[in-house]
Amino acid sequence: MYDLIIIGSGPAGLTAGIYAERAGLKALVIERNFMSGGQIIDTYEVDNYPGLMGINGFDLAQKMREHADQLGVEFKTAEVQSVEDLGETKKVKTPEETLLSKAVLFATGAHHRSLGIPGEAEYAGKGVSYCATCDGAFYKNKDVAVIGGGNVAIEDAIFLARTCQKVYVVHRRDQLRAQKALQDKLFEFDNVEMVWHHTPVEVVGKDGKTSGLLVHDKLTDAEKTIDVSGVFVAVGIVPNTKGYEQICALDNNGYIVAGEDCRTSAPGFFAAGDVRTKEVRQVATAVGDGANAVASVERYLNTQEW
Ligand code: NAP
User: Residue 53 contacts by C-beta under 8 Å, 6 or more apart in sequence?
Assistant: First the structure.
């Protein structure tokens, strides 16, 4: 019987593991991939995590994991199949075993939203990508399109502009959601062209590879095809909460409803990081959640109060 099972090993889960270990709890971190770090693994540069300016996301994840390993945090690689609330005991099932715990922390993060347009699935991995830092190198000296206007889209566009011949940023409005510092950096590149007020309609291909992106002009209703060999989709994230609606309350967007103390609507269940309802989803706030969650877990284990 564990005191705490932490599902997910992004910054929130890793921090919770570190805090739980230091608090003397019998804790387990279950991670789906062999690589800890969650979404930051794919982040080229994390420029706003205090003390580690400009660090590569992969390196930051490694550092956090090393910290957890040095303290002796227990990890298991497995895909959680189901979580069950048996009252004081919680049951977590993986394909190999059934684990029992007094408390469970959901730190499962989020994943890339897809566009759902024709050609997107067909050309995924053949020109359509959701990770510029992973796939950008394949498009050196080529023309690419980035879809979206948030931090991720603009970071991707900056990253790609350094090596690609031309980067089209396709955005459905004429204002970017991304931080001003990122916008300023983007506009320094003369190989970036903003395609304002356009929505993607179809990824078009030739000979089994992406050859263009059909876009719709919201102002004139006209359609045109931008000739590109890569389409980078960066239109937001979706929380990884499938099945959790059976356990605790989710909001309209699928995030687990939980405040700063990370307590969900169900006693003994906690949520930390991008998966919970919050204003700002950043590494810094995920790490804060990991620490807060363990403090709440300790309180719960000591008092059983909810
Ligand atoms: P985001 O901030 O939600 O931005 C998504 C973008 O995609 C928005 O510009 C949105 O347009 C657009 N979009 C959404 N659905 C679309 C559709 N169907 N078709 C076309 N465009 C669509 O998501 P994100 O950029 O993936 O970032 C996720 C979170 O991580 C955010 O909270 C972000 O701040 C954070 N983050 C922070 C940093 C950093 O601080 N360095 C880096 C990376 C990520 P509208 O603007 O019109 O809604």
Answer: 47
Query: Collapsing DSSP states into helix, strand and coil, what is residue 1?
Result: coil
CATH superfamily of the 4-112+237-303 domain? FAD/NAD(P)-binding domain (3.50.50.60)
Active-site hit among 42, 131, 164, 274: 131
pTM of the model: 0.77
Is any atom of ligand 1 closer than 6 Å to the C-beta of 173? yes
Q: Ligand 1 mean position to 38 CA, how many Å?
A: 17
Cβ(11) – ligand 1 distance below 6 Å: no
Domain spans of the chain?
Answer: 4-112+237-303, 128-233
Task: With a cut of 80, say whether residue 134 has pLDDT above it.
Answer: no
Cβ count near 195 (within 10 Å): 19
**For the domain 128-233, what is the CATH code?**
3.50.50.60
Task: Tell me, using a 6 A CB cutoff, whether residue 102 lines ligand 1.
Answer: no
Query: Which pLDDT score is estimated for 210?
Result: 97
